[in-house]
Records
---
Amino acid sequence: MRLRRLFRTSVFQLTLVYMVLFAASVGALSLFIYWATLGYLERQTSATIEAEINGLYEQFERRGLAGLADIINERVQRDAERRSVYLLADAIGRPLAGNVGYWPPTLDVGAEWVDFTKREENGIETPVRAALLRVGPGFRLLVGRDIRELADIRRELRRASVYGVTLTLGLALIGGLFMALSAQRRLAELNRTARQIIAGDLSRRAAVKGSRDEHDELAININAMLDQIENLLAGMRHVGDSVAHDLRGPLTRLRNRLETVASAAEPRREDLAECVQQLDQVLETFNALLRIARVESGAYRSAFTAVDLGAIVRDVCELYQAAADEQRIALRCEHEAAVEVFGDRELLAQALTNLLDNAVKYTPRGGTVTVRLTRGGDTASLSVADSGPGIAEADRSRVLQRFTRLDQARSQPGNGLGLALVNAVTLQHHGRLTLGDNAPGLVVTLEVPALAPAVAPL
Amino acid sequence: MAFHRSSPLLGSTPSGVTDTVRILVIEDDKDVASFIRSGLVQAGCNVDHASNGKDGLFLATTEKYDALIVDRMLPGVDGLTVIRTLRASANATPVLILSALGEVDDRVKGLKAGGDDYLVKPFAFSELLARLEALVRRAKGAGDNQTTVLRAADLEMDLLRREVRRAGQPIDLQPREFQLLEFLLRHTGQVVTRTMLLEGVWDYHFDPQTNVIDVHISRLRSKIDRGFDRPLLHTVRGVGYRLDG
């Protein structure tokens, strides 16, 4: 079963294809060597035979048939290795001279080249290649060579080719299995981790070998993705818990009050009006949550245009001036003319409104709130500084999350969503929100990319 | 005008005008529809109701209404299509669009389709009534847009000279206070809510958490009412403000 699964892996299948291709090339190479080597040897043999038969024919022309027979016999005597084959025969095949006792029966007399097997007296069979020539009226001359070596070489080459291809296939198969197995092992690990995570154990992580190969890269990426998912889930859980906690209070109070009203002999209008007010608070929290979710989903992005932050600062400052005056807070507004950013006017105005709202809310009477808009290079920087109690450094990143309400803020009205919305708006504008120390007080700085200032006509 | 202020939230102001205001509510949610209907009937309106876009469109084109309340999400023909169809056939009846919480409350899209105002559910009935009244009044007084002087009792605003007088005495207003008073004067006798003011005067469409608008109103009040026997600018508790004529 395990093997069958292995055969299905893509690595193994790739190996098979590779193996076939490789074996085919080894085969082709062997074939080439076979043809080249044998062809050379055969041509050489043929050339030797041809030279010899031509030489003998010259002898025949010069010295006649008897002379030719003498030379042939002489050469047979000299050929100690018995590698050469000579035969001079008459028209019906009776030998006149040479070292073959009979005219080979299968021999076609019309051919120029023949291959045949010579049988010796002692029964040894020898393959022979030979050339034929007519000499004089009705006589035939056959000159050949023992080609046993050639046949041996051919056989050896064939065998080498077959072994080579087989060996290649075998090695490739073993290599493929090995590669497929190791790849399979890494993937099986990843799959096991994935299954454990699916089963509910989100803390599992893929093993990283440290080899920096593609499996490691995959494992690292998967781990990063899992971390992100775990963070998001934790965030969701936090929001869910907070929603439950934040709404349970007002909803419980509302329920109690309604029960009182329902059981009262004469329901009072004021009680009911207060119920509506409490319900409105709950709805407001819902609205704020939905708005943050919508901002984070990027729903407003498509409507982004060039927006003058300066105008927004002017508007919102003016909106809050009266409220600040009433609390004896000095609201100062410093802004450069026309700092344009790419964004949503409403969202940016609401972000600034939330910041100013906090600043005015937490600054004691006689304090100062300063709104400052500056442009540095291609960044628009909008800061709201107050002279209130400030936020301890340890709490600063926490207050940007939904529903965070610091202890000293609990006495003030609010739902803990104001800064979360500001943060969401900032992020949607590709900006950065930082909380700093105004010594004393808090300074919140919102930095977003600014559009290039319009070039004044010359 | 028959917006009788019998609603406890609005207090009671006898209107003294006899013609009944006819409103068509196109809304598929039965609860919301009956909530709006009973409230409007209590305010003295004559209310028709359609629970889908097709019926609503039929009623809107065959009958004469003073205003329509149209839900965005309707079975069959959706709200924006209803409005577009009406506008395409030169029907100028004022339309208040309702959009549910969590829906894409794209007010720009709604107003582009031909809506006159936009309200997100859930809403306070007083907010709906105030906006509806503003729409109906505006439609009826569409002709006198050319007026250059706005009046309420002995308060007078000259739009060309940008001057305000009460009982002949000049009152010095900041530009934003002037705009605020102009908006109130254009809605004399009607309740305007805080969000209506934020939209109409500041052109922002979100809800500021705190009472920033209240402070502006109290400043304006101190300028136009201080030293006079009869106060003109009233706070309608839990709803908004009203400038009496």
---
Amino acid sequence: MDKSATLTQPVSAYDHAEGPADAPLTLVEYGDYQCPYCGAAYPIVKRLQKTLAKKLRFVFRNFPLTRAHPYALIAAAAAEAAALQGKFWEMHDLLFEQQTFLQPDIIPVWAERIGLNLEKFGNDIKQGDVENRIREDRQSGIHSGVNGTPTFFINATRYDGPPDYESLLAALESELALRSL
Amino acid sequence: MSALKPGVRAPDFSLLTTPDQKVSLSDFLGRPVILVFYPADWSPVCSDQLGLYSELKPEFSEFEAQIVGISVDGVWSHLAFSKDRKLHFPLLADFEPKGAVARQYGVYRETDGESERALFVIDSVGVIRWSYVSPVGINPGADGIFKALESMAKS
């Protein structure tokens, strides 16, 4: 049986991460803000974070499926622009929580809701830096074996199991057990 | 039955892509070809393998690579499926005789009557340079394809 794909770009301080940097488990998600499967994964990840607490570091990287999802790119840009004002996770969470309402006109409303400087936000969202970051994520995703959205990597190995909470938790706990041997 | 290996000449074939249009492998001589054998149209949405390759068309174009999908589904299923998923590459019907091309490539699942989920990267002179059979339930992504294309571009 082939080994599953592995991350080509290790997690670093450059990444958007929640949880301790030295947590025994790192869960990376390559996601698309307009993808319903990522929308479904959002509460599952939250639950995993609650259950595993300090044992889990969660990292989000962009993989907008721009052909299938016309608003995925602008949503990703919004989150990365929010990151430049220190509010990546606020925007990331809002985008998934309000996914059914996602469309370009609502993004400034959400930016305001999370307390961003709207002028800076408006400038940053169109800037090369934001664009480059999304493109870098896409490249690292492609080379790491991202095969759709969401694609999860548990401690740098692609997770190929079912996307439900129980299966993900089992895989994470099994990795935890392996590491404590 | 096992998939054809690198170094082997890719068997030529001619399959319908629409009710009145045939596509032959030899049509693409002069550029790399990525053959994507897959079990069936209409697998679960948005995270699916063909949608991903359609998404990555700009990256494949950098290598002038042509992607072609092949399953045992008929042309009408392909037309509807391609339209529904807005796919940007031809889907070929390995329909009659059923699975004949998949068999030529060593990727036909006799018991299921469908092809394996298999990838072949063929160079511009028609030689297989990389092949991979994925467990049928796992979407293999594109990293193997790009590794092959990159290594071909270097040599």
